[in-house]
Design brief:
By secondary structure, the protein is an all-alpha fold. Helix 3 runs parallel beside helix 5 and helix 14 packs across helix 16. The termini are far apart.
Length: 414
């Protein structure tokens, strides 16, 4: 499921900023449109978590939301007006919000005590996205140049192919790839139901989810370290949206093509897959705080590369770092968040995590990035982003170092 679903998403979503730019929109409008989806995610994410835990029919919600979000995304490409686009983006986000967090929570429940293996399953998501984006980027090139003449025998077929080129072809691929997605979803449902029956037959009570968002928020704010964790997740969300909204516009500024963008997505996915595979060991070895500090340092380095890039190879390295950062950070964050809450509240806790990162974090990042891109340009925007992440990483490292010194002095005193 992770791979085919991400292939569908990866065939379209990475290129939305380029699509909006092709409609004549500037940086502020692109940032505004880009902020709608994450802000909607923040508002409705926890609500979906509560609904799922109350209804106790996660796959029914998955089927409904997957279909509705697919229809909404297709409608986005049928309108040109900014207002209509914003409304449809909001509707799409309303239904797409619970899909991945819900799958993540089901997988975490399936793994049980072996949660550190989550990253190795999640790597298929980033691989699927990278493969689809790599191929999709090359199809974008078709829109830029066509042959002057066409052999008469295949004239009609060639005309059909031209009409399906560029973004139209990507939308077609997005739709077709949802077919294997629903098949995998159904297979996963059968396995889940079979495991549930086995658990019931063993005399164990089935999970009776009674999620309460107040209780989850209470868990999140009861400890200083947990608060710092969510603040840093928010900052990572800002950086993620800023980068993804304008990275390919930056590519275009240095002469990058659709094929270059596709190649960069593949490199990003390969780097992310490697980090997803080893994320469990890394997180267990250095701790969540150091994972976050390392992620901030790498993001700062990536933004610096994008700011000062003079050729496409800077972008390749930057996107490789993007995948590595996300692979380690997100897998570790999911595992950490799931450990904060009891089993019956895990779905809501993961939805809260997604709301902070994909919601207010990415929404803020899209707006900030859009404003800075319009004022100081794309390169300047990435420069300020690099500086901000470097400062955040320095503050976190000082906090971690100070905590170690206090713990060391306490042990000596004892």
């Amino acid at each position: 499921f992770y791979m085919v679903y991400s292939m569908a998403i990866g065939s379209v979503l990475p290129f939305l900023s380029i699509y909006y730019k092709s409609l004549g929109h500037g940086g502020k409008v692109i940032g505004l449109i880009g902020s709608i989806s994450p802000f909607t995610t923040f508002l409705v994410g926890p609500i979906w978590g509560i609904i799922t835990d109350k209804v106790r029919s996660p796959f029914l919600i998955l089927y409904i939301t997957s279909v509705m979000s697919m229809v909404g995304q297709l409608l986005v490409f049928l309108v040109d007006e900014t207002q209509s686009t914003m409304i449809l983006v909001c509707i799409t986000a309303l239904f797409s919000t619970p899909v991945k967090p819900l799958i993540d929570s089901l997988v975490m429940a399936r793994l049980g005590k072996d949660r550190t293996q989550f990253g190795r399953l999640r790597l298929f998501s980033i691989l699927g996205s990278g493969i689809a984006s790599s191929v999709a980027g090359r199809f974008l090139k078709i829109e830029e140049s066509h042959e002057a003449s066409t052999p008469p025998v295949i004239g009609r077929l060639w005309y059909f192919w031209q009409s399906m080129s560029g973004f139209k072809l990507l939308v077609f691929a997005y739709t077709v790839l949802h077919i294997p997605t629903f098949i995998c979803m159904r297979l996963f449902q059968k396995e889940h139901e079979a495991q549930k029956k086995t658990t019931d037959n063993d005399g164990k009570k089935p999970t009776n989810s009674s999620a309460n968002m107040k209780e989850v928020i209470g868990i999140a704010v009861r400890d200083k370290n947990i608060i710092i964790f969510f603040v840093l997740v928010y900052l990572m969300g800002i950086s993620a949206a800023t980068g993804e909204s304008f990275v390919y516009i930056r590519f275009q500024e240095v002469g990058g093509t659709g094929a270059n963008m596709g190649t960069s997505r593949l490199l990003s996915s390969l780097g992310g897959a490697a980090m997803f595979w080893y994320s469990g060991r890394i997180s267990a070895g250095i701790g969540m705080e150091n994972v976050l500090a390392l992620s901030l340092v790498i993001v700062a380095t990536r933004f610096a590369l994008l700011s000062y890039m003079t050729n496409i190879y800077f972008g390749y390295l930057a996107e490789l770092l993007r995948g590595m950062t996300f692979g380690c950070f997100w897998s570790s964050a999911i595992v950490y968040a799931s450990q904060l809450a009891p089993t019956e509240l895990q779905t809501t806790m993961i939805q809260l995590l997604s709301g902070v990162y994909n919601g207010i974090g990415r929404s803020s990042g899209a707006l900030i990035g859009g404003y800075l891109q319009a004022v100081v340009g794309t390169a300047g925007m990435f420069k300020y982003g690099a500086m901000a992440n470097a400062v955040a990483a320095s503050v976190l490292l000082l906090q971690v170092t100070g905590k170690k010194q206090i713990n060391g002095e306490t042990k000596k005193g004892q």
